[in-house]
Design brief:
By secondary structure, this protein is α/β, with parallel strands linked by helices. Helix content is 40%, strand content 21%. The chain is built from twelve helices and twelve strands. A ten-stranded mixed sheet has the order 2-1-3-12-11-4-5-10-8-9, with helices on both faces. The protein has a two-stranded antiparallel ribbon with strand order 6-7. Strand 6 and strand 7 form a beta hairpin. The longest helix has 19 residues, at 15-33. The radius of gyration is 20 Å and the shape is globular. The model has no long low-confidence stretch (mean pLDDT 95). The chain binds 3-isopropylmalic acid and magnesium ion. 3-isopropylmalic acid (IPM) is lined by residues 90, 93-94, 248. Belongs to the isocitrate and isopropylmalate dehydrogenases family. LeuB type 1 subfamily. Pathway: Amino-acid biosynthesis; L-leucine biosynthesis; L-leucine from 3-methyl-2-oxobutanoate: step 3/4. NAD(+) binds at residues 77-90, 287-299.
Length: 367
């Protein structure tokens, strides 16, 4: 049998630095656990635009469709701000999500014990927090037609369309219920059924799917109230399912509960391929952080934990994913902090590569 294949797209800004640490972890799994991956690397985002005049070359898109999983760093930067919308680095990422049909975006917000006092919220509100946001990723207002800026009378009008079909809601709801079954059997669905028809349909379809999962306690919340409850008492939630735009906002909010965006991974999953694995793309929740790019300051943990999610969700290596997550916990407990995690005086930050080395050492120690 051939090795599982990984396409690595480091992207822009801090993407290449954090991905370099992931490559060391991937090599470690090959050398120490016999888990050898066929790794290829390519361009996405601004760097792809610089090289090819497009944020995602067709050849790269084709490769992404063939591999077992894609690992992405980050895209974007101020250099590309004035580009036409269709050429912006973000379009490369959105094209991958759309053409791979990665409809279920899993965004865990987990508070590491060692960082509980790092949150802007009180420690008892966030200590032990472990929630999962399932964000619909390929439809809704991000992709709905009509869209554009049009002339209307003597002024212009900007239009985007929130649009969901029953089947689009059904499939992401099923992903969320399946996850809830493997966790604490609690699912909260968020929309704005009080003002949006798409929200009314969302609630109806999620309720209907829920009949297939009688063990899961399903609740519904308006997304604005959900935002409030997430900051008031986040531990009331386990799995949250919501649409593309609300999911974008709520997952940033949830991320910040944990103290640092630099810690959080994500998985974007689609339908199973012929080999039974889901189409999948893994990426940190954080962006390309152009202000600190190239300085060795970036926190590689979100990207490393994204690889842990790949081990779990694409490669059936749950025990190895646990091992990697424990190694991260270990170095944090030992007090290692990249610059984004510094709050205490007198603690010097470690570099991106030093954090990577420490996690490798913790992996060695786990054997
Ligand atoms: C995210 C980002 C993206 C989004 C951008 C970069 C297109 O904010 O992954 O949350 O809005 O989906
Ligand atoms: Mg976002």
């Amino acid at each position: 049998m051939s090795n599982p294949s990984l396409l690595i797209l480091p992207g822009d800004g801090i993407g290449p630095e954090v991905m370099a640490e992931v490559r060391r972890i991937i090599d470690w799994y090959g050398a120490k656990r016999g888990l050898v991956f066929d790794v290829s690397e390519d361009l996405v985002g601004g760097c792809a635009y610089d090289a090819h005049g497009t944020p995602l070359h067709d050849d790269t898109m084709a490769k992404a469709q063939e591999v077992d999983a894609v690992l992405l760093g980050a895209v974007g930067g101020p250099k590309y701000d004035s580009l036409d919308f269709s050429l912006k680095p973000e379009r490369g990422l959105l094209r991958l999500r759309k053409e791979m049909d990665l409809y279920a975006n899993l965004r865990p917000a987990q508070c590491f014990d060692a960082l509980a006092d790092f949150s802007s919220l009180k420690t008892d509100v966030v200590a032990g927090l472990d929630i999962m946001i399932v964000r619909e990723l390929t439809s809704g207002v991000y992709f709905g037609e009509p869209r554009g800026i049009f002339e209307e009378g003597n002024e212009r009008v900007g239009i985007n369309t929130q649009r969901y079909t029953e089947s689009e809601i059904d499939r992401v709801a099923r992903s969320a219920f399946e996850l809830a079954m493997r966790r604490n059997r609690k699912l909260c669905s968020m929309e704005k059924a009080n003002v949006m028809e798409s929200g009314v349909l969302w609630r109806e379809v999620v309720t209907e799917v829920g009949k297939d999962y009688p063990e899961v306690a399903l609740t519904h919340m308006y997304a604005d109230a959900g935002a409030m409850q997430l900051t008031r008492w986040p531990k009331q939630f386990d799995v949250i399912v919501t649409d593309n735009l609300f999911g974008d906002l709520l997952s940033d909010l949830a991320a910040m509960l944990t103290g640092s965006l630099g810690m959080l991974p994500s998985a974007s999953l689609g339908a199973p391929m012929a080999n039974g694995r889901p189409k999948a793309l893994y990426e940190p929740v954080h962006g390309s952080a152009p202000d600190i790019a190239g300085q060795g300051k970036a926190n590689p943990i979100a990207c490393i934990l994204s690889f842990a999610m790949a081990l779990r969700y694409s490669f059936d290596q749950g025990a190895e994913a646990d091992r990697l997550e424990k190694a991260v916990e270990r170095v944090l407990a030992d007090g290692l902090r990249t610059a984004d995690l510094l709050g205490q005086e007198g603690v010097a930050p470690v570099t991106t590569a030093e954090m990577g080395s420490a996690i490798l050492a913790a992996l060695d120690a786990s054997l």
